[in-house]
Amino acid sequence: MNTTHTDCIIIGAGLSGIGAACHLSRKNPDKTYVILEARAELGGTWSLFKYPGIRSDSDMYTFGYSFKTWEDQKTFADGPSILKYLNEAADEYQVRDHIRYQQSAVSYNFDTKEKLWTVTTVNSSTAEQTVYTCQFIFSCSGYYNYSKGYTPKFKDQSHFEGQIIHPQQWPDKLAVANKKVVVIGSGATAVTIVPELATEGAQVVMLQRSPTYIAALPNKDKIADRLKHLFPKKIAYRLIRYKNIFYSIIFFNLCKLFPEAMKNFIINGAKKGLGDFPVDPHFIPNYNPWEQRFCIAPNGDFFRAIRKGKATVVTDHIDRFLPNGILLKSGETLAADIIITATGLNLVAFGGVKIQLDSKPFDVSKSFVYKGLMLSDLPNFFIFVGYTNASWTLKSDLTSEYISRVLKYLDKHNYKAVEAKVIETDLKPVPLLNLNSGYINRSANMLPSQGNKAPWRIYQNYVLDYKMLRLDSVKDKRLKFF
User: Is the full-model pTM beyond 0.70?
Assistant: First the structure.
């Protein structure tokens, strides 16, 4: 059995993993590392998902890395453009040679005496086991199951004679022209797929149990264009990035402070985009803005497809599947040749890897998250969890910057390990993710908790996190260095 040692092991070659590697190359070039990627290519989400219209639902000036400018004119980029951006970053910082593909991590064990992690992987093609050792693990594996999406059990599903497709397993060259297509779901994936299928000539119905907040935003930022003309590229990128960060913070806080006013504002925007199509009940959610993740329709493409009669929305509950469609609880029947179950993801904590401390099982659900990036009582283990109310990458960038400072602090003081310890006697557990979404609620008991106060509380606020992770001292009474 092969054994390889490096200073750091990065789990996953997606957006967070490639970013973490670039940051190491920039800020800690003395550290050796490998990236263990379970699949056969880099890109994570952006190489896995192939459904029509796959794109970012955050603006690319904040979804892109802090150290690499976004050159494209589109604010909300399609999947292939994001994958190209990731590949460029990997090449610019010589990351590609560090990636070990088809290495699916199955177990981690930290030896407190040796201050060393042992990572065991299985080759997803040959089933061969490999053992890696390292000082630090960067867990960048994302938060969902890559092999299978979430599909609820529908009554008489086997009776349906057409195709049933989950977006996570989208087939190559699916012909939808002149086909009746029902998209089940109302989240970001459904809102992305519906206008694309309509453009391809399908007769599309989005079937939802309850509405989601959807806002039309321009896919070209005029202020960004102006700033690009006025300033050098890197300065302009930074200004646009900060502008968009503050816009999102302001919008999020307005939704929290004035939920009714913001609800009316968003619904009125939907009214303008829909024309004669009714907003009630299809676009009036039964929760306040930002209690669940917000959906974006670049240039209003989703509303335009409905306004022009190329797609429609039905709000109802499924009774059962029929050979040629779906029977709803209201008694209405939706005819379908293809049913797309845009019903969400299956969450999995840290890639489902078995974690051990001194060869004893470590229960992550019993731990607290320190500053959004370490687990209490688990040394030299860093987690990358992005924002739920803003671009994922904003937080993963800050996480990398903080880790860089920690590594330098350890080296300066001749330490080999760092561990977060709960010293508060009144710390109360709070669910890690602050959204009331189905995929989060289904898996809440598998995840670690955040606390009810800093530094165990996750603020979902870039300004507060910037202070905590970039400016505040690394030294903290809750951190044990050894």
Answer: yes
